[in-house]
Design goal:
homodimer; Rossmann fold; six-stranded parallel sheet; globular; disordered N terminus
């Protein structure tokens, strides 16, 4: 069978939609579909471009479909999805964000988020355990919030949160403190931190401003970004001698906990394997 | 790039869902996806298992999606879909059946059916023009009705319609007559016809009864069936010396008129090419 005709989808295929707006930039369809194929699972991850005003209708329709295996939720739907599921995992409730919907055996839909655990696991795989670290977090939206709670849960000593929306930042800091963690708001000045993280979309466009002043980051600092392929910021940080992590690593660490929900947890979804498969997909 | 990792779907892929219940048996995902790939079109046909009570919700949701290129409708939704589109083609109105939804530039949804034209074009490609033929049609549901009008339109001399649901058969015959064609109801006795067609699902299961008595078909008669891979009926007819057409041929002739709706009419969707691509997909 030649590559040009090898079927990846047939009538029996189950679907794992990823819903977002925009959608063209997502890497999940390629990575998940390649991993399904690797494991001999007849399923395919498909991009579904849902406008915000169409999300509720999409969820209503999805409940009537028989061959979905779950739903991956991405920007800008992670908060709205909170209201569209039946139950929330503890981390989704804390993060006020859903990036995966799992279908339970009893028919109830569970909203979960693995953004935070993906972020932390990515650092750990690279040898940078956040335990004891002082963290500057820029961005306190859905992803930033998930990351904040996962870092706190992983033993980060202190979190300083910055957001252009000051109220959103102070709200997150207050919720972290209410959960028993050390957290304050502050300016996006990276000097003196062990870990600085960009959880804003800044860097998705090539000419976006930097989320913080790279010159103020000490060489050797851990710098992490949620932008999939990294950005001008992460490239400058790398040149500056920082230890850099980008969004693709965070994403590649999310498949294992999602696959657990899908009932495929016994197979190999290690970041090492996912990264190898994802690398092979690059042209 | 190896076959096992060649991506067929990424974030930019457009989706062509086929909705049905059941769905596992459909061949459209493989055939369409292979044809899209052949033509370098970034789109994928995906099976969507929609229960009848979920069809309206699916259509409502689909209207809010930005990356669908159309919707293929199959059993048992072809009649219900009539009410879920904005406009109907003449042949859909006559056949009271929709098997394809095209999105017009002005945002309106057009329901069309190419079951009939696919059936007739398949016969013609095989050298059997229905013009002047006496036809026995068994089955007067959505597909049967579409086939009846297409055969009449192609110049069939007379249609005799049989259905276990007598009222449905006489209703179809009356509508054919109202449109100016020669049509009556009759028993499923194939003796004396030039063309006998099975447009019922009989034969989808291996132990289904035969739709008519094969012994009563004269050798050389044209026998056509809508069952994709044929059935015990078509295999017996073949042994009996009939000229046999099965559903896959009818289906392979439907891509061209559907692709026209998708804006890809200038590319090669000839049944010859589709059949070659479909054959290459078989394991």
């Amino acid at each position: 069978m030649t590559p040009s005709t090898a079927p990846i989808v047939d009538g029996s295929s189950r679907l794992l939609p990823i819903v977002g707006d925009p959608i063209a930039q997502v890497k999940s369809p390629e990575v998940w579909s390649a991993m399904f194929r690797l494991h001999g699972i007849n399923a395919v991850c498909v991009p579904v471009h849902v406008r915000p005003d169409g999300l509720a209708a999409f969820f209503r329709a999805a409940r009537g479909l028989e061959n979905l295996c779950g739903v991956i939720v991405t920007i800008p739907h992670k908060v709205a999805a909170l209201e569209l599921v039946d139950d929330l995992s503890d981390r989704s409730r804390l993060a006020r964000s859903v990036n995966f919907v799992a279908f339970r055996a009893d028919g109830r839909w569970l909203g979960d988020t693995v953004d935070g655990t993906g972020f932390v696991d990515n650092l750990r795989t690279g040898g940078d355990d956040p335990r004891g670290m002082r963290v500057l977090l820029v961005g306190s939206g859905g992803v930033g919030t998930a990351i904040a709670f996962a870092l706190a849960d992983a033993g980060a000593r202190e979190l300083v949160v910055y957001d252009v929306d000051e109220r959103r930042a102070s709200d997150l800091a207050a919720r972290l403190r209410a959960a028993g963690y050390e957290a304050t708001t502050g300016m996006p000045d990276p000097a003196g931190f062990d870990l600085v993280a960009n959880a804003t979309p800044m860097g998705m466009q090539g000419d976006d401003p930097l989320p913080m002043d790279v010159e103020r980051i000490a060489p050797g600092t851990v710098v992490a970004d949620v932008i999939v392929e990294g950005s001008r910021f992460t490239r400058l940080a790398e040149v500056h001698g920082c230890r850099v992590y980008v969004g693709s690593g965070m994403m590649n660490h999310q498949l294992a906990p999602m696959a657990e929900h899908l009932g495929y947890g016994h197979l190999d979804w290690s970041a090492e394997t996912v990264t190898r498969v994802a690398s092979a997909l690059r042209p």
